[in-house]
Every structure is written in structure tokens, then in C-alpha cells.
Amino acid sequence: MPSDPATPSPECNCLALRQAARHVTQFYDQCLAPSGLRTTQLSILAKLRRLGPLTINALARELVMDRTTLGRTMLPLERDGLISIEDRSLDRRSKELHLTKSGVERLRVAAKLWSEAQARFEAAFGSARAGTLRSELRAVASSEL
Prior knowledge:
three-stranded antiparallel beta sheet; 145 residues; mainly alpha
């Protein structure tokens, strides 16, 4: 425990994870910049492509993301015509997110840039270490904390 509770110690798991996440996110965002997407937006489009239309709550669960933050992140995607928000057929109070044709095309462009970023990350960090890191981070994200 740090002597000053207001200053996290170097052993603080949360601080280390947040710093690493910010560092890696900045790198991927920089690589994705030519596509006009940020990593969080790419994740939204990719999930919708992989899983099909989802409610906001379901997508937030899939991304392990706060619903309010997701709402703010998807607004530019809707504005740019990359996703559409539609009433669900069975429950009009619930909204469903759909990937548009423009969204599919933007995702295609961004996926190429993401692949390049992924290769650069693995070249710098090591493929085996990157695989272990992903596995460990998935375990953290699915743990009962």
C-alpha cells in the first residue's frame, strides 16, 4: 500500500493497465487515422459486422463498455452514415444498431490499416508475448472482480 493514498504505487494493477491501454490506443488510433476512425469506433463496426444488428445494451456488453460512453462513441458513426439506429420490430422502445453499406466499406479500409498496426505491434513486442498478453487480458476482462 502506498504511503500516500492519493498517489498510486508502481505496483498498482489498475494504473499499469490504464497506462498500457492509453499507450496502445494512441498507437492504433494514429495508425487508423487515415480511415477517419478511432479504435473504439472500429470495434463497434467490427462487432456489428461479425454479430449482426445489436441493441445498444447488447453491444455495450460485448465491448465491455459503459452504455453512456458507447452512446457518445457511436454518434459520429451515425452522423457519417456508417451505422443506422432503428426501432426493433418486436419492441419499438428498444433501438437496434445496424452496419450500413458505407460502414462496411469504411471497415474494409480501416481493417487494412489495423492489420498493419497489428503487425507493427507484434514486431515491436514479439508475437509470442503479444499472444500471451491477449490471453491474459481476456482472462482479466472475464474475471469476477
